[in-house]
C-alpha cells in the first residue's frame, strides 16, 4: 500500500505541474546514449515513454507544426483516418521507429469505431462454421480471434474486461448442442481462455438473470449455457490508441481533412496530401513516402482522390443498437441468442451502468451521421421481448444509434464473392496503401493483422527502414500499465470533489464509489490527474444526474486527449450521448462553458457548438426525440 500511495503522490504532483502549464508540455524520460547513436529510441525506452505516469501528449498546435514541417523532410507514413485501424497503424509504425503522421476529418473514433457492439469477440461463431463446414480457414480465424482478444484485454485492462454471456435453451437438444459446442470452444482456446463455460438449470438461470422468461415462443426454459467474451469501451480505447501513438512520436491531428493528394510530376506517385484544418480553416501540405488510407466506410472517396475511376471496395452494412435502463439486464451478465425465430442474432449486454441491445444487419448508404430507422428499433424490441418476463417499452429507449460496417471487396478479385468482414490491404495506386474491412477486435491482430499488414505493405511500397519489428502485441496503452482493479479505492480515500453550488460557494463532496470506479476504468492510472483537477480547480460536480461523469473530465480531455468540441466529449471522451441523449442534452451548457474556458471560445463559437451538438443528438433516436406512436412497444 505504501508503494502505491507513493506512486500516486508522485503522479498527483506531476498532474498539478501539468495543469499549471495548460497541458502543453511533453515530459519524457531521458533517452539513452544508444538511442541517440541510432537515431531511434529502443523498444524499452518507448515503453518507458508511453508508461511514464508524468508524460503528457504534445499539444495539437505542436502536432500540426510537425505535419507542416514534413516539407523539409517527408514523413515515412501519413495515415488518413483516425478510427481503430488508422490509430492502430499509426501506433504500430511509430513503435517501429518510423516517422508517422495521422489526420482525421472529424474526431478519433467518430465513425464505426465508436458505434460497435462493444464486444471483443473470441470467434465462437467461426468455430461452428469450421466444424460443420470442415473449414480449416475458419478454425484459424478462431485461433487468431482468441489470441487477439487476450492481447487487447491485457494491453488496456482498464477499458476491457471479461463478460459472461448467457445463451437460453428451450429444449434439451439446444442444451446439449450449445454445451458441447462451448466446451469445444474452451478446448480450442487453451491458454487464451478467459473462464470455463458451464450449464445452469432453469432455476439457477433466472436467479442469475431475473428478467429472463421461463417460457419463450410456447416453449419452457430448460436451462442456459454461459461462456465468456470480452467487452470494451470502444471510443475510449480508440482515443487511447491515438494518445499512445502520440507519445510514441506520431503526429496525430483530428479535425483535419485531406482535400487532395500531392503527386510526383514525373512518376505520378503520391508523395503527400493537401490538408485542411477544419477548426481554423487553414490549409497546408504534408509530405510522406507512403500514404495509408484507413478511412473505414469512406475509404472509397479517398481512393477516388487518387484515381477517379477506382472501383468500389466498400459494401456498407448498417448495425443498429439501442440502450435501455439497467433493470433490463443484471450487472455482470449478458444474454445472447444465437438464432432467433427469423434466424438473426440478438443480445442484451450490461454496459456502463445501462443495457445495450441489438443488433440489425442491413444494407445502407454511406453518410457521416447514420440514423437508425424506427423499423430497426422495433425489430430489436420485438426480438428481446420473446426472452424477457417484463414489458418491453419503446419509452424505455434512452438512446439508439446506427453504425456503418465497412464490409470489404478486394478490388483485385475477379468476382464479388470476396465480400467479407475480414480485411483487405491493397496498393492500386503508387504510394497509396488502402486497408479496410475487418472488425474492432482485429485492428492489430498478430498474423492476419490489419495495422501490422498495412504497415508491412507501406514499408514495402516506400522501401522504408524500420528500426525493429512490430511490438504492439505486448504494448500497454496509455493508462494501462500498473493499473489494478482496486485503484478506485485509492481515489475514494485520497481525493475529494470540490464543487461550486448554485450560489457560487465552493463546497467539498465525497469522491464516491461510483465516481471513483468510473474514473479508474475510463482513465486507468491517469485517473488521479482527473481527480486532482476535480479537487484543486473546483470541478468536482457531476455533469448529469444519475451518471458519474465529472466537470473535471471536460478540462482534462481538452488538455490531454485532443477534445476539441462538445460532440467530441459527449460522444467519444465520455459516452453520455450513447447512454442517454436527454442527459447529454442537459449537460451541454456546462460542458461548453468549460471547453470555452480551455480553448478561449467566444460567444459565437459557443453558440455554434451548442447547435452542432443538438443536431448530433437528434440522430440518436431515443424516446425523447423520435416519433414512434405507430409502433407496438409504447
Mean pLDDT: 88
CATH C-level class of the largest domain is: Alpha Beta
| Beta-strand percent range | 15-25%
CATH superfamily of the largest domain: FAD/NAD(P)-binding domain
Largest sheet features: 10 strands, mixed
Low-confidence stretches: 1-39, 414-418, 442-448
How would you classify the helix and strand content by structural class? alpha+beta
Write the layout of secondary structure elements.
Elements: H1 2-20, H2 33-38, H3 43-51, H4 60-68, E1 75-80, H5 84-94, E2 100-104, E3 119-120, H6 124-133, H7 136-155, E4 160-169, H8 172-189, E5 198-200, H9 202-208, E6 215-216, E7 219-220, E8 223-232, H10 234-247, E9 251-254, E10 256-263, E11 270-277, E12 283-293, H11 299-306, E13 314-324, E14 334-337, E15 346-351, E16 354-358, E17 362-363, H12 374-385, E18 399-408, E19 423-429, E20 432-437, H13 451-462, H14 487-494, E21 496-500, E22 506-510, H15 513-523, H16 527-536, H17 551-560, H18 566-573, H19 576-579, H20 581-599, H21 603-618
Structural summary, described in words:
The protein contains 21 helices and 22 strands. With 634 residues, it is an alpha+beta fold. The protein folds into 3 domains: 202 residues, FAD/NAD(P)-binding domain, CATH 3.50.50.60; 198 residues, D-Amino Acid Oxidase, subunit A, domain 2 (D-Amino Acid Oxidase, Chain A, domain 2, 2-Layer Sandwich); 134 residues, Helicase, Ruva Protein, domain 3 (Orthogonal Bundle). The longest helix has 20 residues. Strands 3, 4, 5, 8, 13, 14, 15, 16, 17 and 18 form a 10-stranded mixed β-sheet that branches. The chain is globular.
Amino acid at each position: 500500500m505504501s508503494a502505491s500511495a507513493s506512486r500516486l503522490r508522485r503522479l498527483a504532483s506531476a498532474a498539478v505541474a501539468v495543469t499549471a502549464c495548460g497541458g502543453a508540455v511533453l515530459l519524457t524520460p531521458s533517452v539513452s546514449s544508444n538511442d541517440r547513436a541510432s537515431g531511434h529510441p529502443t523498444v524499452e525506452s518507448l515503453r518507458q515513454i508511453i508508461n511514464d505516469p508524468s508524460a503528457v501528449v504534445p499539444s495539437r498546435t505542436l502536432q500540426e507544426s510537425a505535419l507542416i514541417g514534413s516539407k523539409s523532410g517527408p514523413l515515412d507514413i501519413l495515415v488518413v483516418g483516425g478510427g481503430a485501424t488508422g490509430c492502430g497503424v499509426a501506433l504500430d509504425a511509430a513503435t517501429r521507429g518510423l516517422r508517422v503522421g495521422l489526420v482525421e476529418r472529424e474526431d478519433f473514433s467518430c465513425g464505426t469505431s465508436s458505434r460497435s457492439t462493444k464486444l471483443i469477440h473470441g470467434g465462437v461463431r467461426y468455430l461452428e462454421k469450421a466444424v460443420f463446414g470442415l473449414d480449416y480457414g475458419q478454425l484459424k480465424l478462431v485461433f487468431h480471434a482468441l489470441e487477439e482478444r487476450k492481447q487487447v484485454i491485457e494491453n488496456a485492462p482498464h477499458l476491457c474486461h471479461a463478460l459472461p454471456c448467457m445463451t437460453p435453451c428451450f429444449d434439451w437438444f439446444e442444451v446439449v448442442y450449445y454445451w458441447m459446442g462451448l466446451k469445444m470452444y474452451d478446448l480450442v482456446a487453451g491458454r487464451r481462455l478467459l473462464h470455463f463455460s458451464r450449464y445452469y438449470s432453469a432455476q439457477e438461470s433466472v436467479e442469475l438473470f431475473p428478467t429472463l422468461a421461463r417460457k419463450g415462443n410456447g416453449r419452457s426454459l430448460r436451462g442456459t449455457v454461459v461462456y465468456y467474451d470480452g467487452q470494451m469501451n470502444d471510443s475510449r480505447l480508440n482515443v487511447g490508441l491515438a494518445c499512445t501513438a502520440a507519445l510514441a512520436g506520431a503526429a496525430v491531428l483530428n479535425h483535419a481533412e485531406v482535400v487532395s493528394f500531392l503527386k510526383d510530376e514525373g512518376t505520378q506517385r503520391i508523395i503527400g496530401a493537401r490538408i485542411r484544418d477544419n477548426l481554423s480553416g487553414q490549409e497546408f501540405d504534408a509530405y510522406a513516402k507512403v500514404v495509408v488510407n484507413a478511412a473505414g466506410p469512406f475509404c472509397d472517396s479517398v481512393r477516388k482522390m487518387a484515381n477517379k475511376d477506382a472501383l468500389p471496395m466498400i459494401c456498407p452494412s448498417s448495425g443498429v443498437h439501442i440502450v435501455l435502463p439497467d433493470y433490463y439486464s443484471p450487472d455482470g451478465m449478458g444474454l445472447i441468442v444465437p438464432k432467433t425465430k427469423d434466424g438473426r442474432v440478438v443480445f442484451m449486454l450490461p454496459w456502463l451502468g445501462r443495457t445495450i441491445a441489438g443488433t440489425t444487419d442491413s444494407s445502407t448508404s454511406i453518410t457521416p451521421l447514420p440514423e437508425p430507422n424506427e423499423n430497426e428499433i422495433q425489430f430489436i424490441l420485438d426480438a428481446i421481448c420473446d426472452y424477457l418476463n417484463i414489458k418491453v417499452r419503446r419509452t424505455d429507449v434512452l438512446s439508439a444509434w446506427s453504425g456503418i460496417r465497412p464490409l470489404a471487396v478486394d478490388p483485385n478479385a475477379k468476382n464479388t464473392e470476396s465480400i467479407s468482414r475480414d480485411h483487405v490491404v491493397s496498393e492500386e495506386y503508387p504510394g497509396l496503401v488502402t486497408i479496410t474491412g475487418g472488425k474492432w477486435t482485429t485492428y492489430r491482430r498478430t498474423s492476419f493483422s490489419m495495422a501490422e499488414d498495412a504497415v508491412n505493405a507501406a514499408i514495402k511500397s516506400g522501401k522504408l527502414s524500420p528500426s525493429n519489428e512490430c511490438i504492439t502485441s505486448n504494448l500497454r496503452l496509455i493508462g494501462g500499465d500498473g493499473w489494478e482493479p482496486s485503484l478506485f479505492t485509492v481515489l475514494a480515500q485520497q481525493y475529494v470533489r470540490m464543487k461550486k453550488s448554485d450560489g457560487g460557494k465552493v463546497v467539498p463532496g465525497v469522491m464516491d464509489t461510483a465516481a471513483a470506479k468510473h474514473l479508474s476504468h475510463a482513465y486507468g492510472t491517469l485517473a488521479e490527474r482527473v481527480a486532482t483537477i476535480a479537487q484543486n480547480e473546483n470541478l468536482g460536480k457531476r455533469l448529469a444526474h444519475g451518471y458519474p461523469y465529472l466537470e473535471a473530465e471536460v478540462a482534462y480531455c481538452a488538455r490531454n486527449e485532443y477534445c476539441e468540441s462538445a460532440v467530441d466529449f459527449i460522444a467519444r471522451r465520455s459516452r453520455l450521448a450513447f447512454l442517454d441523449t436527454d442527459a447529454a442534452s442537459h449537460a451541454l451548457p456546462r460542458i461548453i462553458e468549460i471547453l470555452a474556458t480551455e480553448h478561449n471560445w467566444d460567444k459565437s463559437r459557443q453558440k455554434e457548438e451548442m447547435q452542432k451538438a443538438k443536431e448530433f443528438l437528434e440522430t440518436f433516436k431515443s424516446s425523447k426525440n423520435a416519433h414512434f406512436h405507430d409502433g407496438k412497444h409504447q
